[in-house]
Structures are given as structure tokens and as C-alpha cells.
Amino acid sequence: MTRVRRVAAITCCAGLAVGYAGLTGQLSGDLGPHGGSTSVRHSTPTAQPGGGQTNQVASPLPTVDEQSARMAAARHLLSARAAAVKAGSKSMWMATVDVPGSAFGRRQSVAFDNLIRLPLGQFSYGTMQPAPALGAARAHQVGRKAWVATAVGTYSLAGFDRGPCSFEATFTLVQRPSGWRIADDTDGDTARQIWDLPELKVLRGRSSIVIGNAPQARMRDYRAIADSAVRRLNGVWGTDWNAHVVVVTPSTMGEYAALLSRTADKALDQVAAVTQGVIEPGQRAQGDRVVVSPKAFTALQPSGRRVVITHELAHVATRSSTTEPVPIWLSEGMADYVAYSGLDLPRERVAGELLTLVRQGKGPKALPTAVDFDPSRATIAPSYSGSWLAVSRLVDLYGQARVVAFYRAIAGGPTFDQAARSDPEAVSAQAFTQLFRVSEAQFVKGWKRYLKTLAGRRE
């Protein structure tokens, strides 16, 4: 299987991690899992091409020469598509499509219109390879010599991405008297991209760009929140990050799930927003997107929406200015710390769900781990609250600047031996001793006492 750039890290691809936080109703609790497409250092999942195909092939395998000719034809078609985007020529783009009036052709027409609305810095197709052969029934529909190829492409948004973003597409090619054409993209799992959204709109802000097909008034609201969040992040984290952010706003849960390469399941209902992107090991993120849920996010009050967007942009900030993973409690806790800063909300109120568990003797025994952020396995709000209160307690004890330095040291600072970098938990334990002069175990013991103290203060 062809794969776009990958990272062996938590989320945004290791399964389908997602990092977010949120307030429901008046204020209630944080929302957000961490298992598939978002938060710490991670990448986005790409489905395997040719999924669901039978092993019965429609025709004998091509000879080496035939295969070479097919691949050359496919490369020519994809080069023509890229050239069409660069030239802004829809006729060139649609000339690569077998039947422009088909469902696939109509989708391609929409995709081209959307692509030229985007501030593209580049758009191209690169490596490609044959996908599994079509089954006999499907080949009968599209043509006996039809075959399937998977291509990896790259694109960037000028002024927002520091480097190219990868995407993967699987195309069915058919031979006609005038040459090879693309007949479909459903004979393999082609991940949906932002330019596939119908009725796409693009709104620019001071530090943001909002792309999607949500109602325009809602997109303007997202833009204002994102611009404000960038200013807050600069005040806490610093300015050495890619402070030009991309927010994606699909209008339906089906589109939201498709952009994340997921199915629209109940676990996804807990997720108000997702930070999605790919990071090469040891490098900074270059093209993150914050994808906003049309369901969970719109159910939030204005303060909750601010928290969600700021939380996600905190992930963008840390991912684009650090090179190593950190423990998930620190990543999510720092994101929530920035998100809640300036709101002057009582901690007992925000962390109410967690503190109820503490009163019942069911409070956390340790700092949250990745399992605690998996929405398919647990209610995740208490884990977000516990992480937030851990970071907040560190700030209480040592000050904001020192806690930011603690995060940066774990996330790639020169303080620690590179041999230990494969274990963020071990690096974190070292950082506690070196920067705070206490062991992590001592801090955790004090954090649990602090939770009990908060639990005794009822709103």
C-alpha cells in the first residue's frame, strides 16, 4: 500500500486520534478523545486502496510492457490534472474524466471549482502504483481493460503551510479510442479532501483561514475565535510557531467523518474538533488543520466554542514548534490551560464531572494515559479535566514560564539524552527532577490531594 508520510506517534493516525476539549450547555465538561486524528504528534490515517474488492480478476494480468504503458498513461493523466489546476483551466481538468456527466464527473467538476478557490501554493501528483485488480462484475461495468492505480499527491496553502501536505487518491482508469481516462475514484478507499466539500467557501482572517461549507455566519464566528486564539497563544506559548492557522468546517457529520477517514459513529459525537496533520519523526508539523464538528461544536455556548478552538490551536502551536512527543496528559493539559486562560472560571465548576468521581472515591490514581482519552472505551471529560488541573497546579507551584519551559524541554529541548527520546514518560520523569526539583511521583501525590481539596469545595 502506498502511504503518505507517517509518524509513529500518538494520534492523528496511530488509530484515529483526536484531541479536543469542549463545554456543553452552560459549561459542563471537556470533550475529546485521543486515538485517531489529532492532538499531540501524529499523522492522519489513510485507508488502504482496493478495499472490498474480490480476488476474481476481470482479465489476465498485463505484461511488463503493458503495465509500463499503463503507468505512463496514468502519469500523463495526473500531470494534466495538475497542470489544469495551475492554469485554472476547467476544460483541461475535465478532459481527464471519462464521462463528465456521471456522478464521478460531477464530483470532479465540484473539486476543480473548489481547488481554484483555495490559495494554493502547489498542487501535484507524485508516486503511484497499481492497486488490486477489479473484480469481474465491476470490470464488466467500466471496461475489460480497466485498472486501478493509487497516487500520492501534495499540495500547500500559500501563506499558511510551511511545507507540502500529502494526500492519496485511487483512480479507476479506462481505455477509450482517444486514450486513457479516469472513470471513478470509488474502487479503492480514496480519502476525502477539503476540495471535495460541496459549496465550498473560503474566509480569510488576520491570522486564520476558514475553509468549508458550514453556514457563512458560523464560519465568520470561527474566524473571529481563531484570530483571537492566536493572540492568546502567543502570550502563553510564544511566537515561534506557525501562527497562520487553517480551520475546516464541514456542514454534516458524514463530511466530518469522511475528512477524518472515519465512520460517523457515536464515539465521534463526543468530538467537538480535531487537529489533523502529518509530522515526520523528529520534525515540526508544517500543515495542520483544525477540523470542526458540525454537531458537537454548534451545541456549545460561546465560551465553550472559544475553549475548543483555542485548545486545538494550542496543539497546532506545540506541534509546529517542537520535534518530540510528550505524555498525553501534558499535551492535553497544556492545551486546556491555554484554552481556559483569561476566562476566570472556577476550577470546581469546569472540572465538575471529575470532582464528582473524586467525592465518590473513584478519582484518578495516576496521570491520564492514552487509554483514558479513547472515547470508545471511556468517558473522556474527566481525563481532560484531570490533565488540565495537573498543568494548572504546576503553574500554581512554579509559574507559567517554567511550565512552558518544562513542556519544551520534554518536546525536544537539548536537556535530555537523545537515547531516551523514544520514551516520553521517562523524559517527563527526568524533567520533573531537573526543572521542578521534585519527582513525578511526589507531584502526582500532591495533585491527588489537590483534587480532593477541590472536591470539597462545592459550587
Structure, described:
The chain is an alpha+beta fold and 459 residues long. The protein has 2 domains: 16-44 and 198-455, Neutral Protease, domain 2 (Orthogonal Bundle); 64-190, Nuclear Transport Factor 2, Chain: A (Roll). 40% of the residues lie in helices and 14% in strands. It is built from 15 helices and 10 strands. The chain has a 5-stranded mixed β-sheet with strand order 6-7-8-10-9, covered by helices on one side. A hairpin with a 2-residue loop joins strand 4 (165-176) and strand 5 (179-184). Helix 12 (381-398) crosses helix 15 and helix 13 packs antiparallel against helix 14 (424-436). 46% of the residues are buried. Mean pLDDT is 85; it is low at 1-60.
Amount of helix: 25-40%
Classified by CATH, the class of the largest domain is: Mainly Alpha
Structural class computed from helices and strand pairing: alpha+beta
**CATH fold assignment of the largest domain:** Neutral Protease, domain 2
Helices, by number, come to 15
Shape: elongated
Largest sheet: 5 strands, mixed
Reading the helices and strands in chain order gives: EHHHEHEEEEEHEHHEEHHHHHHHH
Spans of at least 5 consecutive residues whose pLDDT stays below 50 are 1-60
Number of domains: 2
Radius of gyration: 24 Å
Intertermini distance: 54 Å
CATH architecture name of the largest domain: Orthogonal Bundle
